[in-house]
Amino acid sequence: PDAPAKTPTGLSQVAIVAIVGYVMLAASVLVQLGTQHVVPIHSSPAAFAGMRATGALAARTLAHVEPHIKPGVTTAALDAVVHDFIAGNGATAATLGYRGYPSSSCISVNEVVCHGVPSDKVTLKAGDIVNVDVTTVLNGWYGDTSKTFVVGGEDAASDEANRLVRTTREALRLGLNGCRAGARLGDVTEPIHEHLSRAGYGVVNQFRAHGIGRTFHAAPFIQHGKGRRGQGLLLKPGMFFTVEPMANEGTVATKTLKDGWTVVTKDGKLSAQFEHTVGVVEGGCEVFTRVPGSDAFI
Q1: Which runs of consecutive H residues, i.e. helices, occur in 37-141?
Q2: Is the pLDDT of residue 267 over 70?
Q3: Does residue 161 come out as left (phi exceeding 0), alpha (psi in the -120 to 50 range) or beta?
Q4: Assign residue 192 a region: left if phi > 0, alpha if psi is -120 to 50, beta otherwise?
Q5: For the chain, is the Cβ count within 10 Å smaller at the N or the C terminus?
């Protein structure tokens, strides 16, 4: 048979077609990957106004559910309170139906790290710690926040539980102190994992903070247990994202239960989390998920 036609370079036409095809495929993949990791910049006053409104509603939802967090209440009952409050304020719960998730909130008790599915079989007891995580969607804008509560108050819980909750809350504050235009993402994350690690806690990296705005999850995706000051993504005005450290009393090892959502510590020890949604501005960051008019940090 005849040999394949040769080009002046000595390569066959078939080989050139194959090489061109591979180059085009590689370029397509790189474009897709780059698009997935582009951090949106929200420069308009309307974007900030939208985030303030949905963030305030998310914060008010946590404040509304707090009096219901007491011994004898099921996590399903708390979820119903969350659902009704969000719906009553003209918004929707982002988690409801998200990838098949069945509830309007994630409620994580004691050794549950995150994504605890509310249930009428889980009843709160005095001394439990419980994280309530809510995300509101109001006029197309997403506001995501969570807080770990001590059931029955601090006097009902162990010293270890109170220390874990207090230290995790402090870590969130320290991370936000480093958030400002011109800083690097490591200026947010290193104070978090530094504070938690010094206290002897495991900093969960498996589940990450994320960009937010008109979508539930977007770039940047943030691991709180990694990063160094002065390193990482350059923070620019108009970047919206969550900061949400999760701290385990023991190791960082986790497992997911049969429901496909609920994540627990492998060693059965306690886990706590706090979360705010923020927007980067000159000189700092605006915390969207605070109750308007309140001096409370979270």
Answers
A1: 45-65, 75-88
A2: yes
A3: alpha
A4: alpha
A5: N
